[in-house]
Design a protein that fits this description.
- The structure holds two protein chains of two kinds.
- In chain A, 35% of the residues lie in helices and 26% in strands.
- Chain B contains six helices and eleven strands.
- In chain B, the strands form two sheets. In chain B, strands 9-8-7-10-6-1-4-5-11 form a nine-stranded mixed β-sheet, with helices on both faces. In chain B, strands 2-3 form a two-stranded antiparallel sheet.
- Chain B is an alpha/beta fold.
- Classes of the chains: A alpha+beta, B alpha/beta.
- The complex binds flavin-adenine dinucleotide and iron/sulfur cluster (SF4).
Amino acid sequence: MGADTEEYEHYEAVVVGCGPGGAAAAARLADHGVETLVLERGVEAGSKNVSGGLIYAEESAPYTIDDLFPDFREAAAERPITDYYIHNIAGNKVKTYDLTDLHEHDTDWCDAVLRRPMDSWLEERVHEKTSETGGGVLTDVRVNGLLRENGEIVGVTCDELDPITADLIVAADGVNSELARDAGLMDWEEPDEWFQGVKAVVDMDADAIDDRFSIDADEGVAHLFSGDLFEDVRGGGFLYTNEDSLSIGTVFHLDSLVEQRAEPHQLLDSLLTHPLLAQWLRDEYDEREYSAKLVPDSKKVAHREPYRDRLVLVGDAGGQMQAQGPIIKGMNHAVTAGALAADAFVVSQGNADPESAGRRYTKMLEDSGTMKKLRPRRYDLARTVGERDRVTQVVDTVLESRVGGVAVGNPVASRLLERAYNSPFLVSMLPDTATGYVTLPSVIGEEHGRSIHWESEVEPPSLEERIGDLTYDTDVGNPHIRLRDESFEASGAAVYACPVSAEDFGGGCYRAETVKTNGGEETLVSLDTQPCVECGTCAIVADTEWEHPRGGKGVEFREG
Amino acid sequence: MRSIALMKGVPDFSEGAVSFDEDGHLERGKTPTVMNPNDAFALEAALQTRVRHGGHVSGMCMGPPSYTSVLEEAMESVYADDSYLLSDREFAASDTWATAITLCSAIEKYQEEVADVDLVFAGFKTADGETGHTGPQTCWGLEWPIVTHVLALDIDPDERVLRAKRLVEGDVDEIETVEAPLPCMVVADPEFSPTYRKAAHRLTHKRLRAETEARATEHDEHLTTWDHEDLNLDPDYIGLDGSPTIVSSVDPIPKAPSEREATMIDADDGAGLEAVLDEMAAFAGGD
Ligand SMILES: Cc1cc2nc3c(=O)[nH]c(=O)nc-3n(C[C@H](O)[C@H](O)[C@H](O)COP(=O)(O)OP(=O)(O)OC[C@H]3O[C@@H](n4cnc5c(N)ncnc54)[C@H](O)[C@@H]3O)c2cc1C
Ligand code: SF4
């Protein structure tokens, strides 16, 4: 677009997205006196966002969220997490390890959060700060692309506003970042580079939580679940205590979901109805919200040079989401990256080279040790071995054999395993095979576990009810996703992997229909974006033209 | 830019709020007053001008003291800076002519004592009178140009002109673009929709909203009331005495006669339902 950019509105910095990454970048920019405009597509920040969510303040991080927003924990977080367990499950047998050591490694504090209240609180603080330097936060505005002049990125284009130029553009627009894609920095092609998270927020009295989890009002607990309860799909489940609700969800490797043709909502239900959860959920199950979102796997996609021209990528947009074994760290890294990008811009202000901020930001990510966490070298080393099918097969065969069972099953092994799980070094090496997620935990469960005799009385809502309970402002006649190829080969995976679609469900986004063609039958895929929760899955697993809905449209999460 | 937004209170005709007596006459006392719905479009136009060009907006309304609530509502929605209520027993029962004289005098007084006015915004027809005269008559009194049926508005403060897209009603509706010098009166069409395509405008809009929310909580401090003496008006030429319009009679719309009687049947009442089916069979052509 060789446009005349003179006439456009100009800000020193434009930040796209007001999640933790965007909020941190904007707050830090404003602290430096930079005129900063924040554009957020939701009706309010947080209305589009989902996380598990435990937000970590790492001791080694250059910035934590309470450095930038001092009242954060008091005003925007739920409970601090004081206990941390992982349950290895084989059928009804469960072996529980205390993972508090792993959890506390390099951790100053860790709080459970719900994203709507958290992000909307951040939005207000960011607006106050950025207003003081001539900018502010605008919601209901979707940035739809990059503005270029002579091939160089100089600003953004929006659905709702005229183009805007800026000296710094921060893409903090989360997973499936349209800006990162437009800049050619990220592609959306390989399912094995992503996880899919699905979550239910379950209503529960604060007193009932204290009582059933044996904690005080100012304490919280995290439970993780792995083993055979998700059949062979690689991934696990989590349960975190909020002030008066629980966040219960699953995170799976997207390629594994696709391979197994698993239905995400059913996997979530397997967790919700497992007898282990009956002790906490009892018989009155009241689901406040069902939600889903993709998560990038930083080990594979964290961009090593996340910038182009004046554009820098921050947080999920740059793939900076670390799965440290079972511990998921995305929000904290988004905060760090946002603040570093702001600092980098300020020190390189006045430099004629438009890429100087981006280069410096890259160096700061490296020097602060952030990039090493996101892309651990030992993972790259382990990966070349661990992912070789043959090696995995051998390990799995041994584990599943009597010998393996006995080996893992002796009491010394159990202690060693608990220690191994607590080693940040070892868990970050876990290969992405079924061994770590399914085989080992189920062998542990089988060999060491105690049988659980509770009966679950939980009846999760149907997919139809879950969709019915969500709030949508549908952009009628203007679907944000279009199917490019409706053949089952190209797009059929979405019928299963879409968290609001299912094979035999007519009310979801994706449906497969068998149609008669001359001479034979063909299965075609059709799409209705009305129930879409904007998780991003079909952008990767189906052949689509994929965009977010325009500002304020689409799903509106109340919990997140 | 200095603007005055004219507005009127009307009975709340919405379902459940409106109250009629036995003869079907509107009970004004029992029906709450709300802002004339069409005035909302005028206010949107005034707000858009204020957001894009800065300045000051005053809300102005003629009516009994209870109409303060309308001005307060306007302050919240148009983010008006202050309010002017023209209120006096002598103004009662004014027709459009007498109302226009009163408004005109108030705007002139405003120009003399408060500030020069660039724009006056008025709504399109009121929900209770439906004449659509008051705006044009006021403007005639001021000897200003008027642009009606405005769909979109753009102002050039340097050239002191406004450009408007307006709807021309006819066999086929057309849209024409007109230019007029300031000061000018603008009557917004119900199709008027404000546009804010600049981030700076949306930020201003957001700031004004926050400021106005605070201001509206102490509305009385921003309210000026003028009576006929303030406006130097002769009681013979305003109110009922100054109104040449004669309403010969008002025909209440008769209640639709109902000839049918309703019979209630319980869903569990088998015999009753059977009777219903029998009744229906004739219409269904069954037996
Ligand atoms: C089920 C699940 C569990 C998770 N658990 C955890 C956990 O326990 N701990 C943890 O740290 N992380 C967790 N994560 C990951 C974490 O949520 C993300 O890493 C984090 O939110 C990234 O922050 P961000 O600021 O980069 O992006 P986001 O939080 O996604 O924010 C992006 C913002 O940009 C806006 N936006 C997007 N596109 C546009 C556009 N075009 N124009 C304008 N605005 C736009 C969005 O509305 C949104 O507000 C989890 C994720 C999932 C899905
Ligand atoms: S349609 Fe695509 S983006 Fe929407 S919920 Fe389904 S998989 Fe996610």
